[in-house]
Design a protein that fits this description.
The complex is a heterodimer of chains A (681) and B (158). In chain A, 63% of the residues lie in helices and 11% in strands. Chain A is an alpha+beta fold and 681 residues long. The two termini of chain A are 49 Å apart. Classes of the chains: A alpha+beta (681), B alpha+beta (158).
């Protein structure tokens, strides 16, 4: 019953999506409002149907309906309900269903928020979203159908992959990732819509697109950091980023979206880079599809699985179709895409954005090449190779340092032009910060070139970005007599877009420093201990007391009971575990992490003797790790600040800048919100 | 000089600068990329392939994949020295690694060891990865952890 509801809902959704696509295209071409409105109704209907299918799947999972193929694949009666629900995205078919649901949600939101908008942009964007939906619905009807009939019905299932039911973050990371990944379909839809509607020259589509990209980007940033955290908490090697293909797949669209969020400002301000921005949007979308292909088709987890299972072929076909169609469309619109403005000087903010884009493109290309190289090598030369961390670190860390440098230069320079002497003056404080960053890193014992580069330029960027907050706040305090917190809040509130960006910068700076510090100053030791023996690492003494075991419905937990001492005084207890799930012979290690602002103490149970007389543990001391997660949250906060529209800000900022054309900073000094919202879209 | 001519000249100058900057950056990138890929590719080899490469496989990073030869595992818990042999059915290679083996490490299981094949004919492993089988197999009768580690389990089963 549940199975039929789900399967039928998907099938009908596919039919309605096809109808909706035709209605939107036809209605837009002929300019028929009734057809366009019918297409919008189809969007809501598809959303409702996929919601029904998703709820049916959750219901089947929770009720252990093993006649549904997906439930038989990932369900188990002994799995706790929480992990049963989130196993919705634990395997291929369910994750495609979830993807389709998020896409239908985004589509409905796009139509709802823009339904009254004049012109053909939204109808064509709707058609594009239908086009993408149709692809995923075809997958759900065909090669990734989660609602197949199991016969005979198995009495119980294996449960989700143990790695995926071992930590709560599995409930956080995938939905965020999907919101980010799928969200990139919306900018793509508006880009295609603008091309089809011939509205590329209007500033409107780029403004809508920027906001959607920003929200998807915020989700994606959070998702990547949550993924790092998950891998840190679960995989037991004390690291959070290994340049694993799956990680790279999530990082690639983030890079191109970041490039877009910067270069779009150049287009809005100076009318430049139209073609480039369009390409960035298309590339971001294609990279999300490519990433899904890489992680879902099994191409990468096993290089041999290339022809195994038909889903990979579907993805490759879809990527090829999108590529051909968009290239044709871009070529057809080349006249409209010619840039209007020109670069005045290298010492300007737009020039910094150009360099930022150059480096981010290089970054993207490097990661893409390193990720795909094993596939190319096997296809062309028939050898199995892997491209490891050394390649990625060596290639990308200099780029990271350069990007941090630009992150400091950009906010320090004005748009258009500035006298070189003035520019030098503006860059003096960040440069002093850079020297300080280098010295501090050196004094703490960092000798690695890359780490020192990161410390130096992170400090450079930190000074430049903090100064923007400080100067603006001080100006308000002086001119309007506001108290400091009020002045800061109003400053950010009145220029959300700008200070949202600086907030995101501060998040990235925090994250960079934390990553550099935790990998540079990491101490790690392994030892086999008898009860009562201790291992001393980085000022911590970890004493092994005994092995303890515990039975849980879905697993057996074996833990080492440890006491942590500092200077001979007990500061806490830790219990790194090995979780033996019923369905798998091999245990899942579960490290124990003691987090403090200064850093983490990370203990993993490596091995033990069955009688509990000995335990081998690995103790890692990693400074500043919690700041990585904190930095990620700050980045997302920056995106959140920037998203909210402020009609008055645009007026205020424009006025202020006209008044003082070449001086920076130009802060809006309006104390109360002005009522002038004429510039609002 | 007219306004237009000045603008024209500075445009040309800017363009030249932009091109020069682009060439330098892309050149540096290409150089790094070439060197980076060339030196940092890790070949995935079986024992037979490794031995067939002879001296060319020595002292370069390699990932060696195969099964642990039953009965070959020697582990010194005190010094954390782990020695075993990896086979692909045709040939086998001696492996030495430092650090604790994962708890799941067993005779006959699939492993991937990352490291270098030394001139002494011993593969020095820097990273030992146990191959997770993608199909979960429930433990055999009498081998389940709740039975094997019964003495450790204190609380009554929930």
């Amino acid at each position: 019953m549940t199975r039929l509801i789900g399967a039928d809902a998907i099938l009908i959704a596919l039919l309605i999506a096809v109808v909706g696509f035709a209605l939107a295209m036809f209605g837009a071409r002929r300019g028929r409002t009734t057809l366009i409105e019918a297409a919008y109704a189809c969007v809501y209907t598809v959303f409702a149907l996929i919601t029904v299918a998703t709820l049916a799947m959750i219901y089947a999972l929770v009720t252990h309906d093993f006649s549904v193929s997906y439930v038989a694949q990932v369900g188990s009666r002994s799995t706790p309900t929480f992990f049963t629900v989130i196993s919705l995205w634990g395997s291929l078919e369910g994750s495609i269903l979830f993807w389709a649901w998020v896409l239908s949600l985004y589509s409905a939101a796009v139509v709802f928020l823009n339904r009254r908008r004049e012109g053909l942009l939204v109808p064509y964007a709707t058609a594009t979203l239908f086009f993408v939906s149709i692809f995923f619905l075809i997958l759900l009807v065909g090669p990734a159908n989660p609602f197949l009939l199991m016969s005979p019905v198995p009495p119980d299932g294996p449960g989700p992959n143990p790695l995926l039911q071992n930590h709560v973050l599995m409930a956080v990371h995938p939905p965020l990732l999907y919101l980010g990944y799928v969200g990139m379909s919306v900018p793509f839809a508006f880009a295609v819509g603008a091309m089809l509607a011939g509205e590329l020259k209007s500033a409107e589509w780029i403004r809508i697109t920027r906001r959607w990209t920003l929200s998807a980007w915020g989700f994606l940033s959070l998702a990547i950091v949550a993924g790092m955290w998950w891998s840190y908490e679960v995989l037991g090697w004390g690291g959070y980023w290994a340049w694993d293909p799956v990680e790279n797949a999530s990082f690639l669209p983030w890079l191109t979206a970041t490039a877009f969020l910067h270069s779009v400002m150049v287009q809005e301000r100076r009318g430049m880079l139209r073609l480039w921005n369009l390409n960035l949007i298309v590339a971001t979308f294609l990279l999300t599809i490519l990433g899904t292909f890489l992680t879902r088709s099994g191409v990468l987890s096993s290089v041999h699985a290339f022809s195994e299972g038909p889903i990979g072929v579907y993805f490759l076909t879809f990527i090829a179709i999108v590529l051909v169609l968009t290239v044709a469309m871009v070529a057809g619109n080349s006249q409209q895409l010619r840039g209007a403005g020109r670069l005045d000087t290298v010492v300007s903010r737009e020039a910094v954005f150009l360099f930022n884009n150059l480096f981010l493109t290089v970054f993207t290309f490097t990661v893409l090449l390193g990720t795909l190289f094993p596939l190319l090598a096997e296809a062309v030369r028939g050898v199995k190779v892997s491209v490891g961390e050394p390649f990625f670190n060596r290639m990308t860390l200099p780029v990271c340092a350069a990007l941090l440098f630009l992150m400091g230069v950009g906010p320090s320079l004005p748009w258009k032009r500035m006298a070189p002497a003035e520019a030098r003056r503006r860059l003096m404080a960040p440069a002093i910060g850079a020297v300080a960053g280098f010295v501090v890193g050196w004094l703490f014992g960092a000798r690695n070139v890359y780490a020192l580069l990161i410390f130096t330029f992170a400090a450079f960027a930190a000074v430049a970005n903090v100064r923007e907050f400080a100067e603006g706040t001080r100006a308000r305090m002086r001119n309007l007599g506001e108290r400091m917190p009020v002045a800061l809040a109003r400053l950010v509130g009145a220029t959300r877009r700008r200070f949202g960006g600086y907030t995101a910068h501060l998040g990235v700076i925090t994250l960079s420093v934390a990553v550099a510090a935790s990998s540079t100053f990491r101490t790690e030791r392994d030892a086999t201990l008898l009860p009562g023996e201790s291992l001393v690492v980085g000022g911590y003494e970890v004493r092994f007391n005994e092995m303890v075991g515990r039975e849980e419905p879905q697993r057996t937990v074996i833990a080492a009971d440890l006491t942590v001492l500092r200077g001979g005084r007990e500061v806490g207890r830790m219990d790194p575990r090995l979780n033996y799930y019923r369905v798998q012979e091999q245990p899942v290690p579960t490290p124990s992490v003691r987090s403090r602002p200064a850093g983490d103490l990370y203990v993993n149970l490596m091995a033990f003797t069955p009688d509990g007389g000995q335990a081998t543990i690995r103790v890692i001391v990693e400074p500043l790790v919690p700041w990585i997660w904190f930095g990620g949250a700050v980045v997302a906060l920056g995106a959140l600040i920037s998203i909210f529209p402020t009609g008055r800000r645009r007026v205020a900022e424009a006025t202020a800048e006209r008044a003082v054309p070449s001086r920076q900073p130009a802060y809006p000094l309006t104390a109360a919100p002005t009522t002038n919202a004429a510039d609002r879209a | 000089m007219s306004e237009g001519a000045r603008a024209h000249r500075s445009n040309g100058g800017r363009r030249a600068w932009a091109v020069i900057a682009l060439v330098i950056v892309l050149g540096a990138f290409g150089y790094l990329l070439y060197g980076g890929l060339d030196r940092n590719i890790v070949y995935f080899l079986t024992p037979q392939e490794l031995l067939a490469k002879g001296t060319r496989a020595q002292d370069v990073p390699v990932r060696l994949g195969g099964q642990v030869v039953p009965g070959s595992v020697v582990w010194n818990a005190e010094t954390l020295d782990l020695r075993f042999r990896v086979t692909d059915g045709a040939k086998d290679v001696a492996v030495h690694s430092t650090g604790a083996p994962p708890q799941m490490f067993r005779d006959g299981m699939g492993v991937v060891v990352e490291g270098r094949y030394g001139r002494d004919g011993i593969f020095q492993s820097s990273n030992l990865m146990v191959k997770h089988s993608n199909e979960y197999r429930a433990p055999a009768e009498g081998e389940s952890p709740s039975e094997a580690y019964k003495s450790l389990i204190k609380e009554p089963s929930a």
